[in-house]
Amino acid sequence: MAGIDPIQMSACAIASAVNEGSIKAADVVSSFLQRTEDLHRELNTHVFWDKEAVQNETEKQLDYIEAARRAQKYLPLAGVPIAIKDNIMAEGSIVSCGSKFLQNHRAAFDATVIKQLKQAGAVLMGRTNMDEFGMGSSNENSAFGPVRNPWNRSHVSGGSSGGSAAAVAAGMTTLALGSDTGGSVRQPASFCGVLGLKPSYGAVSRYGLVAYASSFDQIGPIGTNARDLARTFDLLRTHDPLDSTSVDTSAFEKTEIQLERPLKGLTIGIADELLQEGLDEDVKKSFFESLEVYKELGCTIKKITLPNLRHSIPTYYILATAEASSNLARFDGIRFGVRASKPGASLKDLYAQSRSEGFGREVKQRIMLGTYVLSSGYYDAYYAKANRMRELIRRDFAAAFEYGVDLIATPTAPTTAFVLGQKTDNSLSMYLMDIYTIAANLSGIPALSLPIGLDRKGLPIGLQLMGKTHHEGELLRSAYQYEQYKRWTERPKF
Ligand code: GLN
Questions:
Q1: Which end of the chain is less enclosed by CB atoms within 10 A, N or C?
Q2: CA–CA distance from 116 to each of 287, 330, 364, 396, 493 (Å)?
Q3: Would you say residue 277 has pLDDT above 90?
Q4: 429 counts as catalytic
């Protein structure tokens, strides 16, 4: 393996090389540490990046990997660097959630996913920038400034896991974790030309993920190819008694072993009503071209209708803000969060003052919206009604799957990455970026985004595939075979 730059290697190739001893995990790690050190300022991908501190933290893990190798114990992600979105707890690290309110908050324990990754031999490669508490679609709502898109620095990275997606695209890490409440893994993956998977609700433990909207949130992997994603997902998918919504999926086959299985016989549904106004021409063209590839691979394309999906955005923004307003109540300057400099005369003043100083504008807007839709007198008109709509959206998917469709394809986002600052004054235009991704979170089904080309400005375009609950295998297999057929090797230039 000597001579191969680890930055160009897949996670699976790194793991094989480290397991067999042809490359040292310490060398892999030092390449990525240096790459992050060189690029993080320019792209603003990381929060509180400190090369030496990250390097020191890796030492114990490097010992563990080396001991496993000597004992000939195979580790599925041996020596693979993985950057972590800053809302997932890793013991001893700051977990700011992109908020200055939590900029001093250190995690007291490892999230379940962090434990699983360490056990698998992965090496944590810093904390990635994000929209504050996951609220945003462009990373411009981070208290620590926006992430820049590696393909074009004047464009957004997408959000809210923008730091994770941009870090993978820029080769600062092989893998990253994001969290996806309404598209936050898939949309930035699409804007940055990498792959992102949002697992079925309950497939991956949320224990140690700072909650935004608990009935939507899922942690998902971001990487450069389908096999890496499959391997990571397979080890993250376990039943966790520490998360009451975690599902026992042990009856489902591992996804990595399904990758080579031919796609012949699979039916992909497309809904015309989702491909109308607001959809960029280049995105639309690439989308239809990608369907041609799937036809070549033996899939059937079938027209379906998902009539209630046009209500996804208001439904989501009512339910997610309602849940957020309750989840974020714990940040009060006493239990969690920086206390106000002038706390006022009463306890109530202290809360109000700390929250006013600590939270950013978008977060405050959402807490107010969420509190409003839950308040007596409006609860039935908004919250209860949105819950009923959520059920109708679920039924739309159930009907499509019952009708013989295995997968549903849409673009991941209606446009490619937009220019920084373009949508910050208009919440609605920002919320519209989630038009394709939100429905999977509303109904709990798995979805992934894979890169399918570039638009005429040279910015990546993503294809979204959605599948049946706990059928991630079909999604990953479809992404894998697309890659094999039409290898998309373009990378951003540095
Ligand atoms: N953009 C959506 C929002 O702002 C989704 C974010 C997410 O998935 N965390 O809520």
A1: C
A2: 35, 27, 34, 35, 33
A3: no
A4: no
